[in-house]
């Protein structure tokens, strides 16, 4: 238990006495019956003296007028939690407006807001998060986390921190050990200007009179209903700009109670660049490889199974030809390679089995389960297709049904997990048109390629697959067209993402669109004329290369330029642009800059096997026993 000093100052102690019944979102502030059977304990210590507000939702209170950006709150938090230099549960950023002599600046100190609707908890596939009735704290256990980082995608406040060295997430824990002995969190006690306060939510601290729920730079509160309140009385300029690399500014809307809303800030000019260095070295290339390979295989599998079921002549010809077994084997290898690449992308790949733990809430858990079922169905279907007898045909049909069920669940939640309110660029049906369009186009391309190599009479198959490819590409093109118009008029972060798409990655974006148009045209021509002879081989090879380049560019742009609704950073600290520069230039070697290289993605098979032997094998066995017996793990 946290030890209280004898000379602890009065301001460091919790001081709330009374509280309201409901918060501004209509949720009860009283969270639970204090007579519960299993009370919350810190480090198995005996329960402390009775706190009348122990079962009420607590939260931070930030007075922006008082914050001088001294970073004492950051230092106190990091010292309390023994964080390395590149991890900060609380960080201070700022926005600014005007020019000398009418320059205005507002500093923002932010940590986890322990929300009423914590999207991190619902999104986490491993159930590493728990929201407790005691103080309303949202706590996260790094030892359960396997480092997928999905919680960092869905949180609008940069609260969960994915450690690029350790490969796991950690976050603010509300200093519950201090709360248990009546002390405020370390960051609040360390604040020099009394900008930070803490207590039962909706209580106005002593000496304060405002109880606002947002300030300029704070993301949309409707996403999570955060438990933080603000006071900000200084008059600000109509436009307040971020100083980090994010092309966002905040404009005061007098028609909406003077609230500041995010808008595009064209920081990088309008010149178009390739951005290939950023794309090729993107942290998300593993997701690109997985989604493209999985969607190609899913599309081909569904066409083979349903085409055979509905007696499509050209599909039946493929299944009866010498191309069928090689096609299945290639599909199996592609799917396995995609899953392997995605798993090795995890911070803790040996904990992959924990991805099934949150099927009740997490779309990522459901995607993992669906894709795993699909892969099992594909594996069984491939295996029993080698044999030609009644039992093998029956078992192949059973696994085909399993694969179809896995496809339905896996493909749907592969799309749903990107419908994230904190990432407006993804939160659009175009994500579905892109994914399902890719299943048709890449799946058709896969069948056409293998058929052209292993089938003699393949003209009918190639023409059919060319039509399927054209349909898939047109679905994707329609989605992209509608999405582009939506982003131009949509939320500020969406506008900023579209701006990055047409400037920083403008030439790559234009090339992808040109290839999309060319490929639709070629696919339609081939669907009517077919391919034959040496010219046909050359056209087919160029078409295949064009399809692969187009698919990769489209998907890596999808990942690389998404701009979330995040808190503003500073010139160096919590600035994505500076972080990328520091890693490229070697400045990240200087620990004091707070930047680290992504070391946990350097795969070491020997180290992984050693870890599995020493630690995780026992965990896996215990986990399996717990699931079988119905006990919590």
Strand and helix layout:
Blueprint: E1 58-63, H1 72-81, E2 91-97, E3 104-110, H2 119-123, E4 129-131, E5 138-140, H3 150-154, E6 161-162, E7 169-170, H4 176-179, H5 186-190, E8 196-200, E9 228-231, E10 239-242, E11 248-253, E12 259-264, H6 276-280, H7 285-309, H8 313-319, H9 324-345, H10 363-384, H11 390-416, H12 430-454, H13 459-489, H14 492-502, H15 506-529, H16 533-560, H17 576-585, H18 605-629
Tell me which CATH architecture of the largest domain applies here. Up-down Bundle
Biggest beta sheet attributes: 5 strands, antiparallel
Helices and strands, in order, run as EHEEHEEHEEHHEEEEEHHHHHHHHHHHHH
What's the average pLDDT? 90
> And the CATH topology of the largest domain?
Formate dehydrogenase/DMSO reductase fold
Number of distinct helices? 18
Taking the alpha carbons of the first and last residues, their distance comes to 25 Å
Structural class: alpha+beta
Q: Quick one: CATH superfamily of the largest domain? A: Formate dehydrogenase/DMSO reductase domain
User: What fraction, in percent, of the residue positions are helical?
Assistant: 40-55%
Mind telling me the C-alpha Rg?
27 Å
Number of domains: 3
- Give the CA-based shape: globular
Written overview of the protein:
The structure is a single chain. Helix content is 46%, strand content 9%. With 633 residues, it is an alpha+beta fold. The strands form 4 sheets. Strands 3-2-10-11-12 form a 5-stranded antiparallel beta sheet. Strands 8-1-9 form a 3-stranded mixed beta sheet. The two termini are 25 Å apart. The model is unreliable at 627-633 (pLDDT under 50).
């Amino acid at each position: 238990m946290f030890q209280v000093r004898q000379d602890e100052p009065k301001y460091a102690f919790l001081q709330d006495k009374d509280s309201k019944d409901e918060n501004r979102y209509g949720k009860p502030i009283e969270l639970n019956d204090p007579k519960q059977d299993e009370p919350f304990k810190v480090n198995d210590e005996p329960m402390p003296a009775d706190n009348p507000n122990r079962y009420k939702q607590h939260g931070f209170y930030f007075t922006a007028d008082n914050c001088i950006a001294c970073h004492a709150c950051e230092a106190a938090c990091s010292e309390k939690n023994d964080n390395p230099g590149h991890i900060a549960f609380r960080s201070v950023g700022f926005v600014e407006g005007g020019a000398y002599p009418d320059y205005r600046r507002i500093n923002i100190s932010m940590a986890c807001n322990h929300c009423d609707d914590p999207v991190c908890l619902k999104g986490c596939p491993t159930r590493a998060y728990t929201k407790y009735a005691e103080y309303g704290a949202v706590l996260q256990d790094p030892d359960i986390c396997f480092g997928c980082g999905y919680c960092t995608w869905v949180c609008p406040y940069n609260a969960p921190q994915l450690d690029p060295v350790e490969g796991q997430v950690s976050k603010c824990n509300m200093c519950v050990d201090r709360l248990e002995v009546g002390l405020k969190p370390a960051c609040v006690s360390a604040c020099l200007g009394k900008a930070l306060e803490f207590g039962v939510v909706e209580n106005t601290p002593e000496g304060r009179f405002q109880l606002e729920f947002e300030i300029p730079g704070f993301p949309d509160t409707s996403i999570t209903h955060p438990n933080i309140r603000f006071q900000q009385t200084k008059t600000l300029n109509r436009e307040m700009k971020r100083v980090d690399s994010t092309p966002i500014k905040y404009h005061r809307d007098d028609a909406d109670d003077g609230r500041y809303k995010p808008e595009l800030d064209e920081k990088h000019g309008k010149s178009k660049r390739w951005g290939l260095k950023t794309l090729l070295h993107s942290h998300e290339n593993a997701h690109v490889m997985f989604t493209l390979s999985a969607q190609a295989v899913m599309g081909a599998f569904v066409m083979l199974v349903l085409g055979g079921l509905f007696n499509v002549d050209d599909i039946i010809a493929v299944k009866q030809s010498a191309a069928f077994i090689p096609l299945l084997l290639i599909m199996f290898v592609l799917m396995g390679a995609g899953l392997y690449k995605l798993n090795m992308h995890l911070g803790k790949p040996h904990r992959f089995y924990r991805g099934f733990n949150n099927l009740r809430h997490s779309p990522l858990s459901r995607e993992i389960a669906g894709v795993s079922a699909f892969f099992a169905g594909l594996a069984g279907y491939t295996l029993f297709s080698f044999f030609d007898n009644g039992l093998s045909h029956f078992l192949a049909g059973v696994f085909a049904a399993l694969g179809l069920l896995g496809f339905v669940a896996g493909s749907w939640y592969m799309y749903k997990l990107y419908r994230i309110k904190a990432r407006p660029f993804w939160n659009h049906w175009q994500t579905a048109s892109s994914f399902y369009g890719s299943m048709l186009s890449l799946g058709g391309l896969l069948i056409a390629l293998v058929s052209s190599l292993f089938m003699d009479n393949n003209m009918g198959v190639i023409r059919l697959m060319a039509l399927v490819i054209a349909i898939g590409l047109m679905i994707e093109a329609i989605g992209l067209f509608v999405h582009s118009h939506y982003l131009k008029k949509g939320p500020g972060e969406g506008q900023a993402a579209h701006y990055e798409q047409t400037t920083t990655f403008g030439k790559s974006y234009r090339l992808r669109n040109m290839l999309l148009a060319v490929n639709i045209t070629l696919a339609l021509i081939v669907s009517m004329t077919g391919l034959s002879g040496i010219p046909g081989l050359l056209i087919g090879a160029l078409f295949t290369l064009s399809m692969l380049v187009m698919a990769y560019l489209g998907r890596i742009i999808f990942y690389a330029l998404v701009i979330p609704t995040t808190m503003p950073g500073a010139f160096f600290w919590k600035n994505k642009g500076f972080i990328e520069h520091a890693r490229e230039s070697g400045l990240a070697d200087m620990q004091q800059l707070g930047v680290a290289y992504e070391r946990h993605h350097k795969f070491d098979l020997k180290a992984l096997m050693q870890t599995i032997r020493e630690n995780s094998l026992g965990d896996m066995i215990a986990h399996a026993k717990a699931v079988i017996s119905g006990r919590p793990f």
